[in-house]
Known about the structure:
The chain is of the alpha/beta class. It has helices spanning 45-52, 75-85, 101-106, 118-131, 147-160, 177-194, 205-210, and strands spanning 2-12, 18-29, 34-38, 60-65, 68-69, 86-89, 165-169, 197-201, 213-218, 221-223. The protein is built from 7 helices and 10 strands. The strands form 2 sheets. Strands 6-7-8-3-9-10 form a 6-stranded mixed sheet, sandwiched between helices.
Amino acid sequence: MIELVNVSKSHRTPEGEAVPILSEVSLRVDAGEFVAITGPSGCGKTTLLNLIGALDRDFTGDIRIAGQDIRRLSDRQLSAFRNKTVGFVFQQFNLLAPLSALENVLLPSHFDPSGEPRTALRERAQKALERVGLGEKLSRRPAQLSGGERQRVAIARALFARPRLVLCDEPTGNLDARTGQAIIDLFRELVAEQAMTIVVVTHETRLSQAAGRVVTLSDHRLRPVDTAAAPRQAT
Length: 235
């Protein structure tokens, strides 16, 4: 599902100095895996997640997601690929304030030309919200929800499109212990029942312990190096 080989990314300062963010990262994640990425703040975890999700294509090395070389996709192809293949759960929720919880979950459908009936889409969005415990708050706007509830709306939106890959940035960081555990249990169910691939960035021990595998970023590199991805010449 995910293959990174010798991926590096740097930030250039106004003085022209290149500051490394990621250095020669190689990682392979198979379909149906539940992987946690851990490491200290500022080590590049969110940047790595954005690269995996093809939100950022400014890098050196090689990245393939679900067999696709993301560098070879046009902007339009990339948007369609992300919409169908990848679900995102951002740390800051990224919900639209004027929209209800149900309408926020439905947002990906506006970019999908599948022609599925609107009633079926609304039913699917409602079921996604029910699955994260918000079935009674479909009409609430983000300002009427707690931080934990907004995070659950974001998770429901990621699940709505039935993606093959879900990427989460601190998905339980704003949740109480009980709700956080419910989300962890949901992730396990999705991997077990639907062979969904889930990659989470987290500082939480309970979430990393629930994952099937943990990789750690330190000093801009994976430690220990993930040896599942055999080194090859970057294209």
